[in-house]
Amino acid sequence: KMFLHxxxxxxxxxxxxxxxxIPQLKIPGGRGTVxxxxxGVLLHKDEKLTVTQASxxxxxxxxxxxxxxxxxxxxxSWDTALSGDSLFxxxxxxxxxxxxxxxxxxxxxxxxxxxxxxxxxxxxxxxREDRLSIIKTFHYxxxxxxxxxxxxxxxxxxxxxxxxxxxxSSSSDEE
Length: 175
Hints:
This protein is of the alpha+beta class. It is built from four helices and eight strands; from the N terminus they run αβββββαβαββα.
């Protein structure tokens, strides 16, 4: 049986206090821990967006990979952890891919309509040189900074968290 380790959780939380509670498991006969998205379960695919479940984890959590095709040669991908009514999204190191805002908008729509989450949290390291640009970009999209000590996110002083609340929009649709 093949198990995948989610570097998403281990890199984010240093292997402790994980919202997705993934033990570090090894692939039998392999070297170390591996993340292979080709082994994921396909959850959704259309002409631009592909969503795969990389692995299931304990409880109600799972790891999802969103892949958005921006053009024939360019794409953007996000690794996420789905836990309860929240989706946690890492902003990877390096510059944001041009056009990734379009893909992230599609990700937010998918999270609301298909995953039925109430919150999308994104996180990045506070020591990034482009952190102000990231904050400005995502604030423009409707994300708000999460205050330190918020119980919905891990206590990690080296990370910054932003949240996009889908609660209000989904409740008004039902009325």
